[in-house]
UniProtKB/TrEMBL annotation, chain A:
Pfam families: Complex1_51K, Fer4_7, RnfC_N, SLBB. It comes from the Bacteria. Binds 2 [4Fe-4S] clusters per subunit. Signal peptide: none annotated. GO terms for biological process: electron transport chain. Coiled coil: none annotated. The gene is rsxC. It comes from Plebeiibacterium sediminum. This is Ion-translocating oxidoreductase complex subunit C.
UniProtKB/TrEMBL annotation, chain B:
The lineage of its organism: Bacteria, Pseudomonadati, Bacteroidota, Bacteroidia, Marinilabiliales. This is Ion-translocating oxidoreductase complex subunit D. InterPro entries: NqrB/RnfD, RnfD_bac. It is a multi-pass membrane protein. One of its GO terms (biological process) is transmembrane transport. The chain crosses the membrane at residues 21-38, 69-87, 93-113, 125-143, 188-213, 220-239, 245-265, 277-296, 302-320. It comes from Plebeiibacterium sediminum. Part of a membrane-bound complex that couples electron transfer with translocation of ions across the membrane. One of its GO terms (cellular component) is plasma membrane. Pfam families: NQR2_RnfD_RnfE. Its cofactor is FMN. The gene is rnfD.
TrEMBL record, chain C:
Belongs to the 4Fe4S bacterial-type ferredoxin family. RnfB subfamily. It comes from Plebeiibacterium sediminum. It is an enzyme of class 7 (translocase). Binds 3 [4Fe-4S] clusters. [4Fe-4S] cluster 2 binds at C138, C142, C145, C148, C182. The complex is composed of six subunits: RnfA, RnfB, RnfC, RnfD, RnfE and RnfG. The lineage of its organism: Bacteria, Pseudomonadati, Bacteroidota, Bacteroidia, Marinilabiliales. This is Ion-translocating oxidoreductase complex subunit B.
Length: 443, 333, 305
């Protein structure tokens, strides 16, 4: 019996078309637009100006606080301008636009592909290096990694959990990374274990990636403390809370962080980035992005420089199909629909999903028939139908009482609803409002 | 490329729909329907057809001309109400009574509360209880089952097992003596007893239940809670005084307990949302059914029990919450 | 006979006992309430819209009775008349307030503002705004999902099917519910003006002129022509957007003439040249104020050009 999380869950069709496709390095575009807000927390402060020469890996925007992250140039060339562009949020946000000339890297970066197993850096040094490299959670949440690794005083961490679940349908970036960069993941895990001072790490992988499980299990024999945990396939297992519940049967109390139960979760992609930052001095300026969809002629996994327009990726995957109705940044369950094809790849872009016209539109909403399927689907044990109603009516105190803030926005409720009700739309709205109210109360 | 659509996540849907669920229930009712037609022939067939047609037509007329809104008769919920109402009526009941029942069920039971999803009571039961109180004679004119009787002349009237039990006990007979007069449990399970059009065939109803569980239309909680509590509660009474209180298996197989537990208590909008709530709701129905049967004036109590518990559903939904994530204390070292 | 007497007596005694109990209970738990609260509540409109900032008319009546200075309290629904009556009952002074009206400061119709995307989520501006800038190049403009219509309890604001923009009619009492409901802050309460005549900038786009103009042909581009033209210093341009102070504006309409994009609207002014009587926006025509105003101003502009 494979382990999984204890409440709710759904089984959307996997549609992993790009599984097994080798990671290809995407040619460097002629211009990149690097947004300064690519992470949760304060946007970075630009430290370059128009006309400045930059190299690959040059720091171009500085972290603007503890919960913030450095941003590095992903190309070499000249800063064209700092301007507002529409990013994945659908709003105009400042970005640094760089015209590309050649591909010259900062001298400090070790460009060789040799595996360096020896971890010479001390724990504090590791965290410092991770912060300097601007590493954020690459699973999509983009939470600055050095913040997660800095265990607050009074709390202890006894286990590191690696999120290799990739429960979103379609996406295969992490899967492919595990197949090709297994050794790097192992060393990266050891680095994180050293930084956290734990002797146990669990890599949680869903059982639909049997090759990755076999590959990593074989590698793990030569790395002490690392175990591979195959998990029963179920969405949203990649949610931090669900993953901890699945792997070590500890449930994070409402409103608390994983450290409360002694665990820290990192994504496998992040682990590779950590390895590169600590062992090779390479800041985070590229990532693996899956380009996929039912109508895409060449679903692929691309190693992409941050700031590349998704247009370039779509072209490389065989061009934008005629009948495209929607382009999603990320997976189909939690990704954001993008407004144009000009949006740049950021640190949090795990995939670009092309949805056909006929599947892009929602069906007509009907009355709630009170079937209770949303309750059964909810991985947090909430009542989505009720949260939607209270959010619609603006009864914020009741929404808070019904634990609206516990919602992880996985979308299982909207996915399941037979009446096609936009449950999550309103719950997300309610979360925003209740969050505001709660923050203003503590002030 | 057409204009890109922007919408909040999730961008995929399970494809489940109201229609799929409703017609799933209709399919689950087919075995019981076939059985009823075999047993009661033309009488059952005419009641079923009238009831379903009347429900659908009343819903159409009310939505189109009274509410002047969207017409949703194709979603299958009116068909279910029609079928359930027919299942709860004696075969060969005059057609005009069926039509009145359908009007009450759809008009008062369902549309006056705002249609599908908003009705606090099971519409078919509202119709049934209205008829039971208004036309007690016709509503208890049970007939003996035969092999597809073609007209009222082919059949003989016969009391239901529950009726026999109730009247027998009133005359001072013991349950043991009465059980001799009653059909065997096997006959009751396979449906060869008198009763409403669709309630006698236990086997057919359980077939429907299995279908609905496999298709995930309903969960097991409500039917199991109702049947379990009927069995346990009547067993306690039977153990206390076997002469006065009928054995639990009799309670389980007679009358409409199975039909009610499987098809009527599980009605989406008049049952609690959460599984925990469903169990409380089911136990309430089970206990009330036995109380009405044993101590009340009516031989059968499932309809009243379900309606009474329907009224408690908002209360149950308000106070019975599903188990929240992280409620159990953390086990951090 | 005996039975009757006993019955009557028993009932009489029971009645008296009950009456006594009720009397003592009522005395014991009596709550003193200023009778003037009832009187004031009587003259309030009983709309319970919350436009005054209190939860309902009763609460507002209590506030009127309790506070010594009621000059900063106002019932937008009842207006000056109601406030005067209420103040009369209480013997207090009331500040004279001008009637206000909600004004929609966006003219991004389908023609003026081409769509770049199609929104397909819950029909709620709040939901749409929390996710995207909108369906067009302008991330400031009206989203058209009708949260303002939903919020209005006076049937005073409706969506115009053709333009996709909300239209305020003369039932508006300036309670401000729509102002709060609009996530884009497009709706503003402005002075209704004499005979409903008012001038305002129908745009809140803070993008630079070129960007704003590209997204919407009637956007304010922040060119400051109106600011220079205004003889009363009523216009300020900040963050690429002009704003007319309705307290300083004397309705001279010079700004309307110089605005290169037609972003400044004038409402309910009689046409400058003679026109057929049917087109004259008389008082009832205020009902279609916002939908007409664009036509009116552009018509006038065309003639002037």
């Amino acid at each position: 019996m494979l382990k999984t999380f204890s409440l709710g869950g759904i089984h959307p069709p996997e549609n992993k078309f790009s599984a097994g496709k080798k990671i290809e390095a995407l040619p460097i575009p002629t211009q990149v637009a690097i947004p300064i807000a690519q992470h949760i927390g304060a946007p970075a402060k630009p430290i370059v100006k128009k006309g400045d020469q930059v190299k690959v890996g040059t720091l171009i925007a500085e972290s603007a606080g503890f919960v913030s992250a450095n941003i590095h140039s992903s190309v070499s060339g000249t800063v064209a301008k700092i301007d507002d562009i529409v990013d994945a949020s659908g709003y105009k946000k400042p970005a640094i636009i760089i015209d590309v000339e050649g591909d010259e890297w900062e001298e400090t970066i070790n460009k060789s592909a040799d595996l360096i197993k020896e971890i010479s850096a001390a724990p504090e040094e590791i965290i410092k290096k991770i912060a300097a490299a601007g590493i954020v959670g690459l699973g999509g949440a983009t939470f600055p990694s050095h913040v997660k690794l800095s265990v607050p005083p009074g709390k202890t961490c006894d286990v590191l959990i690696l999120n290799a679940v990739e429960c979103e349908p379609y996406l295969t970036a992490d899967h492919q990374l595990m197949m090709e960069k297994g050794e790097e993941i192992m060393v990266g895990t050891q680095i994180l274990m050293k930084a956290l001072n734990v002797d146990k790490a669990i890599i949680g992988i869903e059982n639909n990636k049997k090759d990755a499980i076999a590959h990593l299990t074989k590698l793990a024999t030569s790395y002490p403390g690392i175990t591979i945990e195959p998990l029963k396939v179920q969405y949203p297992q990649g949610g931090e809370k669900q993953l901890i519940d699945a792997c070590i049967k500890r449930q994070i109390p409402s409103g608390k962080l994983p450290i409360e139960v002694g665990a820290v979760v990192q994504n496998v992609g992040t682990t590779v980035a950590v390895y590169e930052a600590v062992q090779k001095n390479k800041p985070l300026f590229e990532r693996v992005v899956t380009v996929t969809g039912k109508s895409v002629s060449k679903p692929s996994n691309f190693l992409t420089r941050i700031g590349t327009s998704i247009n370039t990726l779509i072209e490389a995957a065989g061009g934008l199909p005629e009948d495209t109705g929607k382009i999603v940044g990320g997976g189909p369950m939690m990704g954001k629909a993008l407004t144009t094809t000009e949006i740049p790849v950021t640190k949090g872009s795990s995939g670009v999903l092309i949805i056909k016209n006929e599947e892009a539109k929602r069906k007509k909403m009907q009355n709630c028939i009170k079937c209770g399927k949303c309750i059964s689907a909810c991985a947090m044990g909430l009542e989505p139908y009720l949260l939607m109603t209270v959010s619609q009516k603006g009864v914020w105190d009741r929404a808070e009482q019904e634990k609206i803030m516990d919602c992880i926005e996985c979308g299982s409720c909207s996915y399941t609803c037979p009446s096609q009700r936009p449950l999550l739309d309103y719950i997300r709205l309610g979360k925003g409002k209740v969050g505001q109210i709660m923050r203003s109360r503590t002030k | 490329m057409s204009t890109l659509t922007i919408s909040p996540s999730p961008h995929v849907h399970s494809g489940d729909s109201v229609k799929k669920n409703m017609y799933g229930v209709v399919i689950a009712m087919i075995p019981a329907l076939l059985f009823s037609v075999y047993n009661f022939g033309i009488g059952s067939l005419s009641v079923v057809i009238t009831s379903v047609l009347a429900c659908v037509i009343f819903e159409y007329v009310i939505q189109k001309y009274l509410l002047k809104g969207d017409v949703t008769i194709t979603d299958g919920s009116a068909v279910i109400t029609g079928l359930l109402l027919a299942f709860n009526l004696p075969s060969f009941i005059p057609i005009w009574i069926v039509i009145i029942g359908a009007l009450v069920a759809i008009g008062i039971g369902k549309m006056s509360f705002g249609g599908l999803g908003n009705n606090p009571f099971n519409p078919a039961l509202v119709g049934r209880v209205f008829l039971l109180i208004s036309f007690p004679v016709q509503m208890t004119a049970w007939v003996k089952p035969g092999a597809f009787p073609m007209s009222i002349a082919d059949i003989t009237s016969g009391a239901t097992p529950l009726g026999i039990m109730k009247e027998g006990l009133a005359t001072g007979a013991t349950t043991e003596q009465l059980m001799q007069k009653l059909p065997s449990y096997a006959d009751m399970f396979w449906g060869f007893t008198g009763g409403s059009a669709g309630e006698m065939a236990g086997a057919a109803i359980i077939l429907g239940l299995v279908f609905m569980l496999v298709r995930k239309i309903i969960t097991w909680h409500i039917p199991v809670a109702v049947l379990g509590s009927v069995y346990i509660f009547s067993a306690i009474l039977h153990l206390a005084d076997a002469a006065v209180y009928a054995p639990p298996t009799f309670h389980l197989l007679s009358g409409g307990v199975l039909l009610g537990a499987v098809f009527m208590a599980t009605d989406y909008s008049s049952s609690p949302m959460s599984n925990k709530g469903g169990i409380i709701f089911g136990i309430g129905i089970g206990v009330l059914t036995v109380i009405i049967r044993v101590f009340g004036a009516y031989p059968e109590g499932i309809s009243f029990a379900i309606l009474i518990m329907n009224a408690f559903v908002p209360l149950i939904d308000r106070y019975v919450k599903p188990k929240r994530f992280g409620e159990k204390p953390a086990v951090a070292k | 006979m005996n039975v009757v007497i006993i019955t009557v007596l028993t009932l009489a005694i029971l009645g008296t006992v009950a009456a006594l109990v009720l009397y003592f209970v009522a005395q014991k738990f009596k709550v003193f309430e200023d009778p003037r609260i009832d009187q004031v509540e009587e003259v309030l409109p009983a709309a319970n819209c919350g436009g005054c900032g209190f939860p309902g008319c009763r609460a507002f009546a209590e506030a009127l009775v309790k506070s010594d200075d009621i000059s900063d309290l106002n019932c937008p629904v009842g207006g000056a008349e109601t406030m005067k009556t209420a103040a009369g009952i209480l013997g207090k002074e009331v500040a004279a307030s001008d009637p206000m009206i909600a004004v929609v400061k966006c003219n991004g119709t389908c023609e003026n503002r081409p769509r770049t995307n199609k929104y397909d989520g819950a029909t709620s501006c709040a939901v749409a705004a929390s996710l995207y800038g909108g369906e067009t190049g302008c991330s400031y403009g009206c989203l058209g999902c009708g949260d303002c219509v939903e919020a209005c309890t006076f049937d005073a604001i409706h969506m115009d099917e053709k333009t996709g923009l909300p239209v305020v009619n003369d039932k508006c009492v300036a309670c401000g519910a729509c102002v709060d409901a609009c996530p884009k802050n497009i709706i503003e309460l402005r002075k209704a003006g004499p005979k409903g005549r008012r001038v305002f900038v129908s745009c809140i786009n803070q993008d630079k002129g070129g960007v704003a103009k590209k997204a919407c042909s009637v956007a304010c581009i922040g060119c400051k022509k109106c600011q220079k033209e205004c003889p009363f210093d009523a216009i300020t341009v900040e963050n690429n957007i002009a704003y007319i102070d309705y307290n300083k504006c004397k309705l001279c309409r010079k700004c309307v003439a110089v605005c290169p994009t037609g972003a400044i609207h004038e409402v309910n002014f009689p046409p400058k040249k003679a026109k057929p009587a049917t087109e004259k926006p008389a008082a009832p025509a205020k009902t279609e104020a916002t939908s007409n105003e664009n036509k009116t101003s552009s018509d006038i502009k065309n003639k002037e050009e």
